[in-house]
Request: fold
Amino acid sequence: MLDPVTTTILVSAGVLVVVDAWLENRRAMPPVPENIDVNEILAAHYRPCEADRRLIGQCRQMLSLTFGCKTAEQLERTITEQMTPMTVDERIAFIRTLAGQAAATLGVRLNDIKVEYTSATYAGHYNIRRNTLHVNACALCDRAYLAETVRTIFHELKHAVQAAAIRRDGNAWGYPVEVRAAWAHSMRNYIPASVDPYGYFHQPIEIDAFGFENSIVPHAGSH
Ligand SMILES: [Zn+2]
Reply:
């Protein structure tokens, strides 16, 4: 079911079809296998280095100013509460602005930020070849995905940070050489979730991106 606000705003039948297809795809996505506990993986393997702890602090500060929310624990709920009354077009504009602010906070220079409707299952992705951030506008049509979309921005931007940091002249953050080597190796040997969910959640660049997004916007009840 779409939000009531959504159905009154999305007048284009074509858009409604795409949104419905996306919601159906997301709900039909295979659940994370029983032997995989993302929190457990992160507790065991996510070790943010000094540069990341600094970035996490800066992103939290940016979000607490944007949402007027003092504690990270309340952030997920506050994001949902503040974005729910917005129309979908307002949510799209808000997320585009927030993504730009997040990129600036992280020191990432993107070629473009696209918030577009697509029935592809992703909520967002970073295109390393084009250096562009993509957010799926379908995710903004259901309040259940609003806080998740904010988390997705930081997840995908962390992939942009990784991609820049492994370049010879791109490591503006001062990541240690062993971290950059692990990311470079992980990128060359990337494991899609659809191929191997276990491998997907255990590869260095995903542990780093999931750990990063969850440190900035913790899942309610996960601490
Ligand atoms: Zn990722």
Q: What stands out?
A: DSSP finds ten helices and three strands in the chain.
